[in-house]
């Protein structure tokens, strides 16, 4: 009688008996995660194309650059002028400047984050023509765009900081 | 890491730790202890951000480690696809590194969101850096899902390696997004020398300790993945042995 070889084995599927403690992974879960990831990725691409590429217009581009038109809902970036912040009830008024161009802002929401004088901000809203022929920015949200500069808090440097702050509205 | 070991010949699972990995784990713990000490207590407040600056010591190292992890996943995947270095161990390193990278990317997104609330005044906004980072995060979640779709180890390794080589191209897109577009997110700080003294030192400690933690996690995780593969292979061996007994 000859020895059986592997080609003689009956390899038909049997009732599965666990051979190890590790549970078998369920591919449907991986497919579900993959579908969710694809959906989220599509959403992020759409957000990128509609919001992220030109997140804001600089103040000096208002009315000059395509997409930074007067009357259109836009975001603008500039530095808050020194001594320009005034609170009037629920409204906050201030002036932002960039590259020597300034525009007054009337903000209808409460400023949050690190909002203060001499700090770069991005404001959402639209440019409005005032009755006196000037323009102002009607803002509904302000976000602080902190710079890449980090400096330790130090009383000895307060004078320097104040000096920088005084000149902040000139820089833009 | 032993990149030449076979996955199917070992009769019993071996532990995932060695003297080296235990020393590495202790070093990572000590580094994290130093990070807590310097990041929370010894480094000064920032002039503008005050104490909120301390999130920097978690946020930046975790972002850099995520980049590194995805880079390692890409390189390991290339090593698997190249015939001269084809070995499933490269696939496991790629998978382990991607898992740890997703963890660090998640930490980056959460810490950045908290930092954004403090400095910008908002948890999230759709600017270029944030959007591309979120896209990178879900891409690697998708990569991990692709690894679990089933098939043989070689099929898993091949399809995930191709995806890893495509996904890693997103890393420079995320990193340079602050230069290529106009984001709310700040520009580079360290490269421009805008961080000094104890602030820079605390960040350095964060980078070192997170790197040690990354290496420790990847070594252990890839060994666990190797053991998982062994279990799968042994399951097949046992089934064949049972059928030989039948015939």
Offer a few descriptive terms.
heterodimer, A: 172 residues, alpha+beta, OB fold (Dihydrolipoamide Acetyltransferase, E2P), 5-stranded mixed barrel, 7 strands, 23% helix, B: 247 residues, mainly alpha, Four Helix Bundle (Hemerythrin (Met), subunit A), 8 helices, disordered N terminus
Explain what you see:
The complex is a heterodimer of chains A (172) and B (247). By secondary structure, chain A is of the alpha+beta class. Chain A has a domain at 57-148 and 160-171: Nucleic acid-binding proteins (OB fold (Dihydrolipoamide Acetyltransferase, E2P), Beta Barrel), CATH 2.40.50. Chain A has helices at residues 27-52, 158-171, and strands spanning 57-58, 74-80, 86-88, 91-98, 101-107, 120-129, 135-144. Chain A has a five-stranded mixed β-barrel. In chain A, strand 6 and strand 7 (135-144) form a beta hairpin. In chain B, helix 2 (56-81) crosses helix 5 and helix 3 (88-119) packs across helix 5 (153-167). Chain B is elongated. Residues 1-10 of chain B have low confidence and may be disordered. Chain B: Its main location: membrane. Chain B: Residues 23-182 form the Cytochrome c assembly protein domain. Chain B: It is a multi-pass membrane protein. Chain B: Belongs to the CcmC/CycZ/HelC family.
Please state the average pLDDT score of chain A. Answer: 82
Low-confidence stretches of chain B: 1-10
Roughly what is the average pLDDT of chain B, rounded to an integer?
90
Question: CATH H-level name of the domain at 57-148 and 160-171 in chain A... which superfamily?
Answer: Nucleic acid-binding proteins
Per CATH, which architecture of the domain at 57-148 and 160-171 in chain A? Answer: Beta Barrel
Stretches of chain A where pLDDT is under 50 for at least 5 consecutive residues are none
Structural class of chain A: alpha+beta
User: Would you give the CATH topology of chain B?
Assistant: Four Helix Bundle (Hemerythrin (Met), subunit A)
Percent strand of chain A: 25-35%
Give the N-to-C terminal Cα separation of chain B.
42 Å
Beta-strand portion of chain B reads: under 5%
**Name of the top-level CATH class of the domain at 57-148 and 160-171 in chain A:** Mainly Beta
Number of helices of chain A: 2
Q: Largest interface, with Cβ-Cβ < 8 Å?
A: A-B, 54 and 62 residues
Subcellular location (chain B): Membrane
Membrane topology (chain B): Multi-pass membrane protein
InterPro entries (chain B): Cyt_c_assembly (IPR002541), Cyt_c_biogenesis_CcmC (IPR003557), Cyt_c_biogenesis_CcsA/CcmC (IPR045062)
Main location (chain B): membrane
């Amino acid at each position: 009688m000859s020895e059986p070889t592997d080609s003689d084995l009956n390899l038909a599927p049997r009732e599965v008996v666990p051979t190890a403690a590790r549970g078998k992974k369920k591919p449907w879960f991986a497919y579900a995660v993959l579908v969710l990831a694809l959906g989220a990725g599509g959403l992020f691409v759409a957000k990128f194309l509609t919001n992220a590429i030109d997140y804001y217009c600089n103040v000096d581009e208002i009315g000059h650059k395509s997409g930074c038109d007067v009357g259109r809902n836009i975001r603008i970036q500039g530095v808050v002028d020194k001594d320009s912040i005034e609170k009037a009830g629920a409204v906050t008024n201030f002036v932002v400047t960039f590259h020597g161009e300034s525009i007054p802002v009337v903000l209808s929401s409460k400023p949050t984050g690190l909002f203060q004088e001499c700090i770069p901000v991005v404001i959402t809203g639209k440019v409005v023509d005032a009755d006196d022929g000037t323009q102002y920015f009607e803002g509904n949200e302000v976000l602080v765009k902190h710079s890449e500069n980090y400096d330790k808090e130090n009383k000895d440097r307060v004078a320097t900081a104040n000096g920088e702050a005084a000149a902040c509205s000139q820089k833009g | 890491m032993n990149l030449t070991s076979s996955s199917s010949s070992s009769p019993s699972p071996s532990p995932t730790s060695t003297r080296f990995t235990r020393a590495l784990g202790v070093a990572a713990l000590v580094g994290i202890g130093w990070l807590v000490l310097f990041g929370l207590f010894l480094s000064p407040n920032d002039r503008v951000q005050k104490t909120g600056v301390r999130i920097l010591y978690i946020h930046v190292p975790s972002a850099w480690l995520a980049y590194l992890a995805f880079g390692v996943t890409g390189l390991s995947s290339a090593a698997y696809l190249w015939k001269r270095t084809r070995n499933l161990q490269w696939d496991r390193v790629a998978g382990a590194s991607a898992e740890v990278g997703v963890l660090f990317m998640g930490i980056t997104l959460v810490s950045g969101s908290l930092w954004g609330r403090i400095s910008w005044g908002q948890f999230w906004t759709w600017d270029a850096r944030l959007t591309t980072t979120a896209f990178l995060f879900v891409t690697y979640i998708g990569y991990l899902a692709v690894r679990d779709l089933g098939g043989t180890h070689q099929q898993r390794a091949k399809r995930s390696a191709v995806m890893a080589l495509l996904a890693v191209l997103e890393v420079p897109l995320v990193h340079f997004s602050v230069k290529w577009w106009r984001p709310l997110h700040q520009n580079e700080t360290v490269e421009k020398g805008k961080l000094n003294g104890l602030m820079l030192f605390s960040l350095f400690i964060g980078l070192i300790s997170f790197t040690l933690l990354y290496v420790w996690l990847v070594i252990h995780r890839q060994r666990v993945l190797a053991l998982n593969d062994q279990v799968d292979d042994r399951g097949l061996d046992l089934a064949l042995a049972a059928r030989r007994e039948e015939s």
